[in-house]
Design a protein that fits this description.
Blueprint: H1 6-20, E1 33-35, E2 40-42, H2 56-77, E3 82-85, E4 88-91, H3 114-122, H4 136-153, H5 172-183, H6 219-234, H7 241-278
Antiparallel strand pairs: 1-2, 3-4
Subcellular location: Nucleus
Main location: nucleus
Function: Involved in ribosomal large subunit assembly.
């Protein structure tokens, strides 16, 4: 085996690297047709049938063809205007030129309703009614409030006082009010300000408070106090008789239900107590053995068996008189 020189090895390595990293320039007999909006490239060049035979050669040929056509499509994309979005270069694609079929069929038109058919027959057209009217003053006021809110958020003082705002053209009343505000903005409230010749004194826009005299006739004060009391009484809540009667009836029904519940609970307790006594000592009954030594006859019509249902056995009064000791403990 002949030894390879260094130059041949380097040339072979460069050739292998060139095959891996092919040039971006692709030569074609016929130019491709591009639809950049759909990222579509159509290749109309002739294909060699011998290159499409089975085997590794076919796969290599198809891979090389797809790579070349993709490279041409990318070259066309880079010719478009680009912009940077969040640190990434993005190309602006034009509108698609090739219509593509829908994934699903188009929706069927909705059938008209009975009203729409009637309106079409009669020629009735739907009119959108609105009660809104454009108000220029409101627009200006809203804009002023918006600017004032911005100035307040920025902690900036808004120019203007007494309801005056800077304008390009001001009316006579606004100018008069501005002069009055400027004169009364001193510490003496404009008392020592000089007046122009033939200048009328400014009218006070504020309201003066009036106080009643401390001495004199108090009839007017009495009338005012009575009117105030009438006004306070008129503001008292009115009694709703129907609501009050319904509330009283509900309270009575609830009390009656609570009483029935208590009576029912008492009866259950008494029955349980009587049943418990019947399960106790059997010698405490007043039937059967009785108490010898008492009245000899007793009451023949007594209850021989006591109360059935769990009562004391022998609760009847029949039998003899008194007997020392309790029966059942003989």
């Amino acid at each position: 085996m002949e030894a390879c020189s260094v130059e041949e090895l380097l040339a072979k390595a460069e050739q292998d690297e060139a095959e891996k990293l092919k040039s971006i320039t692709v030569q074609k007999e016929l130019d491709l047709e591009f639809d950049i909006g759909n990222l579509l490239a159509c290749d109309k060049n002739r294909l060699e049938l011998r290159d499409l035979k089975k085997g590794q050669k076919k796969q290599d040929f198809l891979r090389s063809l797809a790579r070349d056509n993709t490279q041409l499509l990318i070259n066309e994309i880079w010719k478009l205007p680009t912009e940077r979005v969040e640190g990434t270069i993005v190309a602006k694609l034009p509108a698609p030129a090739t219509p593509l079929p829908r994934e699903k069929p188009p929706p069927k038109p909705r059938p008209p309703t009975k009203w729409e058919e009637f309106a079409k027959l009669k020629g009735i057209q739907k009119k959108k009614k609105t009660n809104l009217v454009w108000d220029e003053n409101r627009v200006a006021r809203n804009e002023f409030n918006r600017l004032r809110n911005i100035a307040r958020a920025q902690k900036v003082k808004v120019p203007g006082a007494g309801g005056l705002t800077p304008k390009a053209q001001q009316s006579k009343d606004e100018l008069t009010r501005a002069v009055s505000v400027a004169k009364t903005s001193t510490a003496s409230m404009g008392r020592f300000q000089e007046r122009l010749p033939k200048e009328k004194p400014a009218k006070s826009s504020g309201k003066k408070r009036k106080f009643e005299p401390l001495i004199g006739d108090f009839s007017s004060e009495k009338e005012k106090q009575l009117e105030l009391l009438k006004l306070m009484e008129s503001k008292k809540p009115k009694l709703d008789i129907t609501k009050a009667v319904n509330k009283q009836l509900r309270e009575e029904d609830s009390e009656e239900a609570a009483a029935k519940h208590k009576r029912g609970a008492g009866k259950k307790n008494r029955r349980s107590n009587m049943g418990g006594k019947g399960k106790g000592k059997g010698g405490k009954g007043r039937g059967g053995g009785g108490k010898p030594g008492g009245k000899p006859g007793g009451k023949p019509g007594g209850k021989p068996g006591g109360k059935p249902g769990g009562g004391k056995p022998g609760a009847g009064r029949a039998g003899g008189g008194k007997k020392k000791g309790k029966p059942g403990k003989h």
